[in-house]
Automatic annotation (TrEMBL):
Segments forming domain TonB-dependent receptor-like beta-barrel: 252-684
One of the protein's GO biological processes: siderophore transmembrane transport
UniProt membrane topology term: Multi-pass membrane protein
Localization in the cell: Cell outer membrane
Family according to the record: Belongs to the TonB-dependent receptor family.
Signal peptide span: 1-20
Protein name: TonB-dependent receptor
InterPro entries attached to this UniProt entry: Beta-barrel_TonB, Beta-barrel_TonB_sf, CarboxyPept-like_regulatory, Plug_dom, Plug_dom_sf, TonB-dep_rcpt-like
Family annotation (PROSITE patterns): TONB_DEPENDENT_REC_3
Amino acid sequence: MKTIKLLLSVILIAVLPLNAQEVKGKITSKNEALPYVNVYLKGTTKGNASNEFGDYQIKNIKAGNYTIVASFTGYKSVEKQIFIKNNEVLTVNFNLEESALLDEVTVTGTLKPVSRLESPIPVEVYSATFLKQNPTANVFEALQNVNGVRPQLNCNVCNTGDIHINGLEGPYTLVLIDGMPIVSGLSTVYGLSGIPNSLIEQIEIVKGPASSLYGSEAVGGLINIRTKQFFKAPLVFADVFSNSWGETNFDLGFKTNVGKKATVLVGANYFNYSNPIDNNNDNFTDVTLQDRISVFQKWNFERNSGKAFSLAGRYFYENRWGGEMQWNSSYRGGNDIYGESIYTSRYEIIGNYELPVSEHMNFQFSYSDHDQNSVYGDTPYIAQQKIGFGQLLWDKSVNNHDLLFGVAARYNFYNDNTTATVHADEVTIPSIFAQDEFSISEKQHILLGARYDYDKRHGSIFTPRLAYRFKPTKNDIIRLNAGTGFRVVNLFTEDHAALTGSRDVIIEEELKPEQSYNVTLNYLKTLTTNSGELFTFDASLWYTHFTNAIIPDYDTNPNQIIYANLDGYSTSKGASFNIDAVLNTNLRASVGATFQDVSQTENNVKIQQILTEKFNGVWSVSYKNYKTNLSVDYTGTIYGPMRLPLLGDLDPRSEYSPTWSIQNIQLTFNGLKHFEIYGGVKNILNWTPNKGNPFIIARSDDPFDENVEFDNDGNAIVTDDNPYALTFDPSYVYAPNQGRRLFLGLRFMIN
């Protein structure tokens, strides 16, 4: 008998799977099934999304205690404590309530997962739904609908640009991918494209210095692009759209298991625009022609300890050119026909490994290699940049204190063919930082942080910060943040105007690091009316003071761009507000505005910073008709006047831009299983910057200044052929040259 029992036991062990336990259930809202809700076990890699009927299933779970979470954009997240026994199929249902205040989990403000409501740092979170409201081919364009954030084009010819936050230039903004600072230097200008929008989980934005956690470049704020976790991503997805200008964008991806211990998420993006258009009749392309491909992979490895280990990589290649309409690659680098041609090749690696120790310790690392081969007319710019980054984080709770300690090192290699880089710039910057979050009462919360960096070029750099959160009621939050920041300048990688056009670049002195001091006051309120409407009010006041500011001087000499540390100071101050409203299950709307004063003061003379608007606003309205499966999205932006770079007193172009607006409308049909069809109109008002100006690009008929006469001081002089004494210059740019266009797209998804 014993032998038979033993034999049966062996058979059962062989037949039954080791992790047969599973959790399943249904997600509803107002007694209706809610599809595509993320359901996961907190602190693990286990999770899934509900199907079109609201059903979900999580398999192969080890027996034990868990916290199961259901979260979905626009709804309050729900957590439940569960215990699953051996060989048990546990049923856990969720009923989610709508929320005006999107209570997403964010990691950007504090370097650890925290509810957006509970974070002492104000963090704005934009979900995948936001990206679908106004479909774009890259993140750069998508950010135009964020209040206080403006994608700024820096050149009319090659259309490269950067991101402004609260009026500060792009190099003051740090861009992260999954928390890793790999988008900087060269890629600040060229690398914000090619991340498949379909793989983006959410975009987190912090306005104000974050140098105490992230180091140099996080002076004006930071943008963290978080890609999807495996269990939140669709099984297969595709998204393709094209517009009447001939632009085509294609996203494709899938996820799969690799063996028993690994999962992989794969995505690719391809963008092509090869249709030269010159609607403003200056013989230059209105929009840069581009051929771009990007491939992304994200691996997750299941360890026996249950601790995290993930690895992601991306390769990016782009060929873009702009210039005279008759330009082709045979003219590249010559002085017969003007063109700006840029070849970019780039790869990135990102990893996160949770150490096999009892304490909560993570090692995070990234590496990027960026090669650029470009010509601006007959001026070559060949550059290479390598950035390696690693940091060890220790997350520790002691009584009332939530502590975070970290050590980090950043390796930066940069070399180009310009006279500014006689020898390659190679530096390793070690850092150490600490953070303490604690409550001083039920309603009051404080965060203290500090970071120490050592840069052999500039010595020791110390950046402290303080954050205070006061929650007088469950619907009101007041946050006060103060901190410092610093930034080491990489001139040519950050300022495209230094390379394009015919202005001479003058560097008057050895440039010192910029230093900033910031204070921000934020107020957040939620309001529910008796009739069920939900409103979120978010308002901020900020003030930032810069010393050693490096602001390109276009004014002293119209033929030069002069770089030097400002002998004085610059400031950015202003106010912003946002209102989000859920008016009913069919209708949602939001509106936001920012009023700002960004100026520089030198020798007691205050002037408005160039290419910085006095105010900007954004809005969106989304309406869903469930009976017809149709939804409408109307989005728009408006920008106030900004001072523009003229070439002298005779320049006939306007010194200030007018108030201008870009508005879009989209119609989406999702009545077909697995498919969505969408289309609409971008730039309904057909706004382009040539309106009201005699020309945009100065001397576009003479891009090599062959017919310009100069005096003994090198200044252009008035001639019959040059009545305004101008030289070729494409830096007079503040808005896209692309007018009204129709677009049509198709999405396919299997969850």
